Amino acid sequence: MQGKIIKGIAGFYYVDAAESGIYECRARGIFRKEKVKPLVGDNAVIEILDEEKKEGNLIGILPRTNELIRPAAANVGQALIIFAIASPNPNFLLLDRFLAAMELKGIPSAVCFNKKDLVLEDEVSKIREIYGKCGHRLFFTSLEKGEGAEELHRYLEGKTTLLAGPSGVGKSTLANLFQDGIRMETGEISRKLARGKNTTRHAELIPMGNDTYIFDTPGFSFFDEPSIEKEELRHYYAEFGPYEGKCRFDGCVHISEPDCAVREAVAQGTISQTRYDNYCRLYADLKELEKRRY
């Protein structure tokens, strides 16, 4: 039988096998022998030991489309990054760091700015202006009031989505909104899944029905940014794209070079000053990391 690993705790893996339910499985020794670690999000092959108790063995892992190191996760279909517009105020540098990391992994991303009911429309317009050309889909929601939830649901449906963002921005509200009415398994399975839930720092998959899953992650502080070469960073800013090849120097990184088309666009207001400033800070961070490596 095949299913998807939705959680791993203390050597047990919980596998959602479509209409059959969630099985508590142990991994066979072959995984240790071959040095393969099952990950949340893996599509797995299991053998059933006890159908009534929903117990089995994990005997195989199907090929992965992608893999994240920390949080440890596999087969991420897309990412939804959630920030609050206020309470707490958004950290745009953190957002850009995450977007660049997802671009490097080839994972499509969207950004949800929640709690729009706490600010005036002018503030919403400012954020649209900053991120309107970033190349990622934007959602503006008030999830506590259900505003924008239907559009988000359509984005999530049928996909495995990495849900990420700082604490207090509405991630739990989103998960709870879409879990309403989702069939839970037996109380015993629910208790098994709850074991250690307050101590694990790993990703967990939340089944939402119709082949839809959300990766619930511990937060940005537990996301390891993949190694991005500083010269490549500019390619992860979509608004720079139209100006590639228009600078005086080939391979211009748009930091201090003369006659830089990107810097000129920033000066004219065509490219967001906020996004450009974040780019410069991330470039400086990558340059410092490069120095430490060598």
Folded structure, characterized:
By secondary structure, this protein is of the alpha/beta class. It has three domains: 2-64, OB fold (Dihydrolipoamide Acetyltransferase, E2P) (Beta Barrel), CATH 2.40.50; 68-222, P-loop containing nucleotide triphosphate hydrolases (Rossmann fold, 3-Layer(aba) Sandwich), CATH 3.40.50; 230-293, Ribonucleotide Reductase Protein R1, domain 1 (Orthogonal Bundle), CATH 1.10.40. Helices cover 28% and strands 23% of the residues. The strands form three sheets. Strands 10-9-8-11-13-12 form a six-stranded mixed sheet, sandwiched between helices. It has a five-stranded mixed beta barrel with strand order 1-2-3-5-4. The termini are far apart.
| Overall pLDDT | 87
**Unreliable stretches, pLDDT < 50, 5 or more residues?**
181-191, 194-200
Silhouette = globular
Q: Helicity range of the residues?
A: 25-40%
Rg measurement, Å: 21 Å
What is the CATH architecture descriptor of the largest domain? 3-Layer(aba) Sandwich
The name CATH uses for the topology of the largest domain is Rossmann fold
CATH class bucket of the largest domain: Alpha Beta
Q: Which superfamily, in CATH terms, is the homologous superfamily of the largest domain?
A: P-loop containing nucleotide triphosphate hydrolases
Straight-line N-to-C gap: 49 Å
- The share of residues in extended strands comes to 15-25%
Tally of structural domains: 3
